[in-house]
Amino acid sequence: SRDSAAEAQQLAGPVYRLRGRAGGGLVHMRSFLATCLRLEREHREAQRPEIEARVIREVGPDYVKETPFLDLYPSWFEFVPRENRFFADWERSSAASNRVFEHWAFDISDYEHRGQREIGFIPRPLKMPSERLLADEAVCVHRLMERIEAIDGEMGLPFAWFFFMTHGHWVDPDVGDAIAEGLRAGRIRLPDRDAVVLLAWADKKYLF
């Protein structure tokens, strides 16, 4: 019908705009992520004069050392919000064989704070593992591999454990660090695409 055709066209790519909690509304996630990244870049760009002039001062018993902030954090202006990284990591990992919305819902927020618009989301799993996976120094990395493979099997999703880890409750982030260390030492293996995602996360973490 004409009405259904118009509705389908509208849902193909509405411009994202939301105030307050999402409630029962629809959000075009691609537009949301683009807005999220744009707002972050605009916020940081507005601070460019201050950031370029900022120095870190180190004072010792007989010296004072000043280092430009951007020498220590050269990628500060290229920061990518965790929301964008979550979706990017999904798409470049073995989880991409499944649709993200079949496994996760997203609790979206959009509000003003001190005159600045803040948007983001908290991912909510649609199905939870039967038990939490916590880091334990007494557990070897090979045992951790068995545990994460069990989570993937229970969820019916490859690399599911990683996204539970970014959520921070069901898989302890220290588990990710331990597995990343095992990868670097050559003691364990992951599929190449998953290893790339995990090692990038270990170098520059994000959590929800």
Care to describe what's here?
The protein is of the alpha+beta class and 208 residues long. It folds into 2 domains: 156 residues, no CATH class; 28 residues, no CATH class. It contains 9 helices and 4 strands; from the N terminus they run αααββααββαααα. The strands form 2 sheets. It has a two-stranded antiparallel ribbon with strand order 1-2. It has a two-stranded antiparallel ribbon with strand order 3-4. A hairpin with a 4-residue loop joins strand 1 and strand 2. Helix 8 crosses helix 9. The radius of gyration is 21 Å and the shape is globular. The protein starts with a helix and ends in a 5-residue tail after the last helix.
Give the secondary structure arrangement, pairings included.
Blueprint: H1 2-11, H2 29-46, H3 48-53, E1 55-59, E2 64-68, H4 69-72, H5 82-92, E3 104-113, E4 116-125, H6 141-155, H7 160-167, H8 173-184, H9 192-203
Antiparallel strand pairs: 1-2, 3-4
Helix pairs in contact: 8-9
- Counted beta strands: 4
State the distance separating the first and last CA atoms: 42 Å
Largest pleated sheet: 2 strands, antiparallel
Q: Overall 3D geometry?
A: globular
Contiguous uncertain segments of 5+ residues: 4-17
Strand fraction band? 5-15%
How much helix, percentage-wise, in residues?
40-55%
Class computed from helices, strands and strand pairing: alpha+beta
Give the rounded overall mean pLDDT. Answer: 90
Number of helices: 9
H/E element order: HHHEEHHEEHHHH
Sheet with most strands: strand arrangement: 1-2
What is the alpha-carbon Rg in Å?
A: 21 Å
